[in-house]
Amino acid sequence: MRVVPVFLVFLSLLCFCGLQNAASNAEENQFQQVESAQPAKQDTYLMGECLSNQYTHKSCEKVFCHPWERCVEGKCLCKLPYQCPKNGSSVCSTNGKYFHTYCHLKSYECQRPEAKFLHKGKCVLTETFAISVGQGNSSLLQVKPVNQMNYFFVCDSEWTMNEANVACKHLGFELGAEHYQAKSSITDSALNLLHCLQITCRGLETSLAECHIEMKSRYSNVGFVNLQCQEKLRACSDGEFHCVNKKCISLNKTCDGINDCGDLSDELCCRECRDNSFHCRSNICIPNKNVCNKEIDCLTGEDEARVLCAGKDKGAENHSMDEERKKIKTLLPQVHCGLTNHTLIRRKRIIGGEIARKGEFPWQVAIRDTSSEGATVYCGGVYIGGCWVLTAAHCVRANRVHLYRVWIGMLDTILHNKETDTFRLKQLIIHENYNASTYENDIALLELRGSVTGECSLQYSTPACIPWSKYMFKDGDRCKVSGWGLEKGYTKQYVLKWGNVNLFQNCSVLYPGRFFKKMACAGTYDGSIDSCKGDSGGPLVCFDAENVAYVWGIVSWGENCGEAGHPGVYTKVASYYDWISHHVTRGLISRYNI
């Protein structure tokens, strides 16, 4: 059991504001201590400590992987073609190879970069897609789409570094574009100047053919794109941002929702965003046009939240292979987790916790040891799907696996109801690096003994989702903790109770030498609400923009019950995403990035 686990903590408005200010000041101090290649001018928008992690478009701690990729140890790695969904539109590649779906092609391209997307449908020898760029001051971009015989200039309208980088990478310049500008005066009358191509990309395509291309009538004020690709690296000046790929961009191009670097590293560590971009709570910036477009870009979904997108239906837009990519995502296996059977009421004030109602915490489980007197609940746990329960390592012993019983759907430990499932254990897995002295890696998995077929039919339960990124929730967020732990005064309780707690930035100051990297803490400095002995192993859940619950922490340890200045300490579940998925299979717990 948690030494003295925390039950639920109320933070008054005054205290909470003070906590936020303290967290903000601590963050500023940390930033000053970080040795970074970035000049001090970046402080307004960029976060130095985050930048030191070198995040890019391949970092699934920050972004969603493509449908042809999966998240492994924080990186988006390519799947094998057979792991793609079998449904979708057939496509042809530039090397004349036919693929059943766009996902299959992109997966193949990971191994064979020359096999880029050419067009939808079966391969036809006469169809080609080509682009070219002139030399020097006449570096005008020309594109010949698949369905056209001639080259056309590209309109400068809606053209950004997203498109410029894709065009240059298509031409073989791995660093992308150096710069671009609009040019309106062209003397060569032999070229078709009455029309131009309007091209829009997300910025991570590998071929311009994947972008949305539309023929536009040219008006007098429409210029043509003059493009300069970057051929080699150069030293960055003090007024420039060092991209992870070693490219240099202007500081005022960071945090604007545009992928100027080409690897997205200029948009992933932003304290705030510039105009025309949207700030995700995980501190990334996305273009405003990506908000309410029926695709989640922010890790916790706030860019597609119902309250934000009400009445903002943009309709179905034809963005070429971008629409196909979105369609493929809907065909990936879906994990249904984190949904309650009861509307959670957001109370402004919690004193000592509230009694849980039916369906309010359907992932909460109780663990009993049948050898103990009365077989009372001595630890909690959280159901995560299939036959698996997550709990604290200090709650269980490998040699007692036959004595444990797991109760799911229970609210009252005395007055049982018919909607409670009871399971024996098939096995328990304690983290191999669990340290009983320091409570490091205080996490364990319980596999329930299912039916004859091995399945666990939990009729009255819903699993909580497993977070894959430490950036999904942050300091100051209000989350919920639940359990049957002791009340203040160490009196027993027999009903499931819950309460609101706030995530703290870092508890190493409060617990010097005892608070480690993979721990989280939550509560209040005044200790007005707390968890206590018996709550160990239970869940601390945080909710995304659509009220989907993620088990952010497992109750681990703390200093007494409800003592001011000593919030509860939790095992940070996001730090164990790969460990959990290794044992229970990724497809069971991966809401995204499967």
Describe the structure.
With 594 residues, the chain is α+β, with helices and mostly antiparallel strands. The protein is built from 8 helices and 30 strands. It has helices spanning 13-33, 48-51, 102-111, 161-170, 306-309, 321-331, 577-584, 586-589, and strands spanning 69-72, 75-78, 91-93, 98-99, 117-120, 130-133, 141-144, 152-153, 177-183, 195-200, 212-217, 224-229, 240-242, 248-250, 277-279, 285-287, 354-355, 364-369, 377-385, 388-391, 404-408, 421-423, 425-430, 444-448, 478-483, 497-503, 519-523, 539-543, 549-557, 568-572. The strands form 9 sheets. The protein has a 7-stranded antiparallel beta sheet with strand order 22-21-18-19-20-24-23, with no helix packed on it.
pLDDT < 50 runs, ≥5 residues:
3-42, 343-351
Gross morphology is: elongated
Helix/strand-derived category reads alpha+beta
Main beta sheet: 7 strands, antiparallel
Strand order of the largest sheet: 22-21-18-19-20-24-23
Instruction: Indicate the percent of residues in helices.
Output: 10-25%
Question: How is the topology of this model organized?
Answer:
Blueprint: H1 13-33, H2 48-51, E1 69-72, E2 75-78, E3 91-93, E4 98-99, H3 102-111, E5 117-120, E6 130-133, E7 141-144, E8 152-153, H4 161-170, E9 177-183, E10 195-200, E11 212-217, E12 224-229, E13 240-242, E14 248-250, E15 277-279, E16 285-287, H5 306-309, H6 321-331, E17 354-355, E18 364-369, E19 377-385, E20 388-391, E21 404-408, E22 421-423, E23 425-430, E24 444-448, E25 478-483, E26 497-503, E27 519-523, E28 539-543, E29 549-557, E30 568-572, H7 577-584, H8 586-589
Antiparallel strand pairs: 1-2, 3-4, 3-5, 6-7, 7-8, 9-12, 10-11, 13-14, 15-16, 17-26, 18-19, 18-21, 19-20, 20-24, 21-22, 23-24, 25-26, 25-28, 26-27, 27-30, 28-29, 29-30
